[in-house]
Amino acid sequence: MADEVQPDSNNLQIPGEAVSTPSSPATARSDCGITPLTPSASPRVEVRPRMACPFSVVVAIDFGTTSSGYAFSFTQDSEAIHMMKRWEGGDPGVANQKSPTCLLLTPDLRFHSFGFSARDFYHDLDPEEAQHWLYFDKFKMKIHSTSDLTMETELEAVNGRKVRAIEVFAHALRFFREHALKEVKDQSSSVLEGEEVRWVITVPAVWRQPAKQFMREAAYLAGDRYVVADCGGGTVDLTVHQIEQPQGTLKELYKVSGGPHGAVGVDLAFEAMLCQIFGEDFIQSFKVKRPAAWVDLMIAFEARKRTAWPGRANALNISLPFSFIDYYKRHRGQSVEAALRRSNMKIVKWSSQGMLRLTQEAMNELFQPTICNIVKHIDHSPVPFAEKQFQSMMFPPPYIIIVQCSWK
After folding, report:
1. H-helix or E-strand containing 198?
2. Whether pTM exceeds 0.90
3. Which residues does 105 contact at the CB level (< 8 Å), separation at least 6?
């Protein structure tokens, strides 16, 4: 995998800004005005240095339109995914595993708080004083909808004041970086150095190139450099950028053509599973004789595929078109339920409502080949991620990997 390392904390301050304590009629709830996180009950993980892996933990930040969060895993136990601690505050009866994507700046444009803390603090301000504070809510889509996005594009706060969008996003990314690091260190029995953390930021596939470039620049402003892994529907493309100093422009060092390891591989695995259950000859015949019904079946699978995730315990129901059930009975002289029993495939069951029930194990089997191919593609890439020459000459620490996800 790519060697991603922890950014230098000295680079995290936006140029020209100094740290100051915001003044307010209310008292900030932590040093940087954020709601403290509830102590985690997760066991502490001992992080040991690994010769083949220069990082000890991977932290992924999901920067969403309405809510944001992060998750991390230690390379020593990569199967154990640690979600962001539940936030104190928030809405009653709602699981607060993520934080609202809202940011509050002081009247002198200093960072005050993010998420529930920003929202609650702003709402508690006296209306007259609130006019001087800068509150940004659901600002992510601004960079997608702006056709002429540049580094000087501005976002307008609720009070009408404007701030460069790049600074708003950098504040948010820095916030998650600091809190993710704190939580990681709390769960590690050894002292983690900055170079032991690899950072991941998700980038929506629907974004145009200027928006993706904007997020890269925001990450750099927050103290990071990066590799881009574009995981699309058909291929996985790798690109390595270097930030040219002092002008701050990007130079493309490597562009690796994508391997055929995109999300369509999950669809092919599902088709192979159907062939195993109902017979390859039947599936091929059905695709030719009932093409519209086959498309409907794959659309139904696509919808359920998007809801699959490793922590989901309940089965996913895939609706079989009536024409599939009828055609199988005509073609084979038996029901699809009988075919399932005969296949002895325990991880796929039949519902009396006419649906295939795919257990968590079944979904894992469908995703696993594609995931393994992506990992191998990165590992065997001609981009010399692991070479010392690459680390020291081309990408001195830190840098980051940005993952673009497209499941069709």
Report:
1. strand 197-204
2. no
3. 111, 112, 133, 134, 135, 136, 157, 163, 171
Q: How far is CA 137 from CA 141, 163, 180, 344, in A?
A: 10, 13, 22, 52
Q: Which of 15-29, 149-163, 180-194, 378-392 has the lowest mean pLDDT?
A: 15-29
Which amino acid, 126?
D
Asked whether 229 and 401 are in contact (CB, 8 A), the reply is yes
The CATH-assigned architecture of domain 9-224 is 2-Layer Sandwich (3.30)
Nearest Cα neighbor of 248 from 277, 219, 224, 217 is 217
Residue 86 near residue 96, CB atoms below 8 Å: yes
Helices (H), 29-137: 116-124, 127-130
Position 93 scores a pLDDT of: 41
> What is the rounded distance in angstroms from the CA atom of residue 201 to the CA atom of residue 215?
9
What residue ranges of the chain are covered by domains with CATH 3.30.420? Answer: 9-224
For 106: left if phi > 0, alpha if psi spans -120 to 50, otherwise beta; the answer is: beta
**DSSP helix/strand/coil, 299:** helix
Q: Do 231 and 91 meet the contact criterion of CB atoms below 8 Å apart?
A: no
Confidence band, pLDDT 50/70/90 cuts, at residue 106: very high
Confidence of residue 283 (pLDDT cuts 50, 70, 90): very high
SS3 state at 154: strand
